[in-house]
Amino acid sequence: MASDITGSVQAMEAEAARVLEEAKARASDILQKAREEARDMSSAELPLDDARAEAARIVKEAEKKASAEIKQADKQAEDIKATASAKVDEYVKLMVSIVLGEKTE
Fold this sequence. Notes:
The structure is a single chain. This protein is an all-alpha fold and 105 residues long. The chain has one domain (2-99). It has two helices and no strands. The chain has helices at residues 2-43, 48-99. The radius of gyration is 24 Å and the shape is rod-shaped.
């Protein structure tokens, strides 16, 4: 039973880490694409001021989107950890009641 609890908690923590890594990877991709677009735009035959302003806008937008995704992933990870903690407490209480003979499962 204890190994089930440990396995469950470890699975939840692994899921939280996976969600966070996916968000970071997506954020990195977004920033890379924004930089590429900015480079492409700055090398095009456009007035430089317009290109720089557009590039800055794209990068700022990408950073904002990446930051939002990372915050969301952090929140999901915290939720998963909180759920895991609550379940561990629940399992501990159940095991104590079984050991004390209050419950037979």
